[in-house]
Amino acid sequence: MVDAFGLFTANLPMVLLLAGAAMIVAEALIPGAHFFVVGVALFAAGLVGLALPAGLGVLNVLILTVVVIVTSLATLYAYRELDVYGGTSEGRTSDSQSLRGKTGRVTERVTPTEGEVKLDNGGFNPYYRARSVDGEIPEGEEVMVMDPGGGNLLTVESVGDVADDIDRQLERGRSETAGREAGAEADPNA
Fold first, then answer.
1. Which are the contacts of 40, defined by CB distance < 8 A and separation ≥ 6?
2. How confident is the model at residue 1 (pLDDT cuts 50, 70, 90)?
3. Is 0.90 topped by the overall pTM?
């Protein structure tokens, strides 16, 4: 009679190797980090199992289990550190219009005709050629994307110069308040 456990442990490394390879191929065909971590762990355990002597029995299974766990943790750690698929979506832009309103810093002086900026969360390569709306923006200045264009040339403006509707209303309110206070000081009977 054939020893079922011995047959299982003898073929286990090849089964792990093939299962791991299949999962890695599946990950390549269907990306999304569904199979990658487990596939790498099973593949590594299969390689280690092929290198181990076949007569270890239960010890062989325990060693392969430890290899799967350690490799899974190491692969998961590396996967998260490298942010392969941009899990937080910080490293990705869906299109050029998603850059509108992003902020960054000037890395090369920006003029109406030339310059370079590095955007905060600006995609895989956060460096973009830039031009200013008007005037010159010195290196190190914080900027905001006003027009993303359509390529890698952005139109930017210094954050200190950007005024939106809220800023204009606040300024109008300050002017009106200052005007009333000045009128009240000029007319003591008020």
1. 20, 24, 71, 72, 75
2. very low
3. no
d(CA 71, CA 74): 5
CATH of domain 96-160: 2.40.50.140
* Neighbour count for residue 64 (Cβ, 10 Å): 22
Q: What is the DSSP string of 112-133?
A: SS--EEEETT--SS-EEEEEES
For the chain, give every domain's residue range. 4-82, 96-160
Q: How many CB atoms lie within 10 A of CB 41?
A: 23
Please list the alpha-helical segments (H only) found in the chain: 4-29, 36-51, 58-82, 165-186
**Which tens digit of pLDDT belongs to each residue from 71-100?**
999 988 887 777 665 555 554 545 667 788
What is the DSSP code (8-state) at residue 190? -
